[in-house]
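JOB MANIFEST
job_type = single_chain_structure
chain_count = 1
residues = 435
[input]
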Amino acid sequence: MRTIVRLAVAVAVGLLPAPTPVGAQAADTATAISLTEILELARLRNPRLQALQAAAEAAAFRQPEASTLPDPMLQLGVMNFGLPDFNTDMPTSMAPSVQVMQMVPFPGKLSLRGEIAGYGTEMAEAGAEEAWWDVRGRAASMFYDLYSLDRRLEVMRSTLALLRDFQQVAKAMYVAGTGRQADVLRSDVEVARMDGELRTMEAMRKTMAARLNALLDRPAETRVPSPALGELPLDAPDRAELLAWADESRPMLTRGRLGVAQAQKRSELAGRQIWPDFTVGLSYGQRDRGMGTERMGSAMIGFSIPLHAGSRQYAARDEATAMYRLAEAELTSAEAEVDARIGELLAELERARSLTELYRDEVIPEAHATVSSAFSSYRVGNVDFMTLVDAQMTVNRYEGELYQLLGEYGKAVAALESAIGRPIPRTGQILAEAR
């Protein structure tokens, strides 16, 4: 079905030479590009993915920082020097004086902060992976749109060639005295109209290619070969299996579960904030009394006082509890979204598959038979020229719709893979483009 069936009747009677397929260069499989190649380019080149991957790497460095004690404080000075001469002869003077202070959080706080940061790293990684499936879905959608457009262009080029064949027949019959001048004029109009539509579609093709290049971070004018459809699974797994796969593999759900776990740890940490943090310190000083150096040491411990617990620690605890409920609600919403999306895409796959089979097996063969019959009847004067043109335009529309259905089926498969976070195995029956 790569090109429209030629009119064997016209060739047989000698009115037309056997035509050369138009648009064959667009169908050259040697220069075609596969979806796998597009996805590899997207994985390597998409700026959004690179940015999120860098953000995930940055998040990984926050965990050791969060679980490490604060830096100690070192103080150097002179204590109790005399004024206004700044002398250190007083009995209580110490020169030099050295003091070291260390803040120590209440037991358990530091480890909780490390766990929270660890969940943040995993969430960032899951977010980057979720972005990949989003970009993957967009790249696949553009790929199948481009595939559908290229195949419709081939159909239009072949239809244009057939209209020109009709034009030659109309002119030959008019010269032979068996045709009408109106048919010749009408054929000229139809050829010009189809040529205009073809030019419009070619401009659309350039726009689609530019959008795909933007996703791949390439110059807009970079050549994009004609996409090859590849193999698509004819039957998707059942809904229960797809939901199980999504629960296991979908990064959005993984991120949601990590968010709930992180919120729970934040709630635990907020509950511990009412307990005081400690500060321990050591100091050393020395003085010279003329009878040798006297050395002195001190030790101290302090702790924070939750003086404003009602408006600070308790408020933070209530906030953390509310955020935990929010994280649970967001996870539930994400699970429902995935469930609904899978159901929607399964219905779309069934629609596109059944219509594709209907067009291939019944609609298009009958449309081609109608064209052949109309051409034979036109030659003997039983139908007018517009009947012949309308029959051919119907074939053009049906073949274009078939390729659009194939593209929609491919987009639905790619969207379903994005919804579950893994490729669908090509182990059963395969839907492939008929040749």
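[summary]
Residues 141 and 411 are 5 Å apart (CA to CA).
Residues 71-104+275-308 form one domain.
exit_status = 0
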